[in-house]
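re: ur question from yesterday

yeah so i grabbed the chain u mentioned. its 178 aa long if i counted rite. heres the sequnce exactly as i have it in my notes:
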Amino acid sequence: MTLKHSLGTQIAPATLRVERTLPAPVERVWAYLVDPEKRKTWLAGGSMAQAVGDVFELRFQHTELSGEEAPEHYAAYRKTHIQKSRVLRIEPPKLLTISWGSESDTASEVTFELTPKGDGTQLVLTHRRLPDRKETVSVSSGWHAHLDVLDDVLHGRKPDGFWTNLQEAEKAYEAHVD
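ran it thru and got these structure tokens back, copy pasting raw so excuse formatting
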């Protein structure tokens, strides 16, 4: 399997930036970020908060993304994985920043920026405060695979094997990240 999209860029030692042009208007892409039912089709369901400071829950059910069961290396993710996050900044429908990994002030953070691009949307995802190289590789390949699923969903296609794609992305990022 070959990666369908270019790799994200490490723009600082603890910061990843991924850019994608998505085949939907900004309002539709925004809905896939904040509506838990839509979000679970590419990332994680759970709940969503609408105000800065509010905590919400991400419920990852990776097997449901493409129907592919996690290989042994990722066996811990065969079951539902729950993560608490906090809304740090929200400007519908163009910007969302959330804590990642926990709701604490020391958690890493993810910003989604949406801008119109023709009939589609330019998504810029920036993940900051990654603690080390291992986590940077893991997060980079995870975002790559999840955004591939989002692209397929927005195109109305059945997503390719999430875990197969994640493993390919992980190899690529292992060679790409400092």
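noticed a couple things. The helical segments are 26-34, 36-39, 63-66, 133-155, 162-176. also Strands lie at 9-12, 15-22, 45-46, 55-60, 81-91, 95-100, 108-117, 120-128.
anyway ttyl
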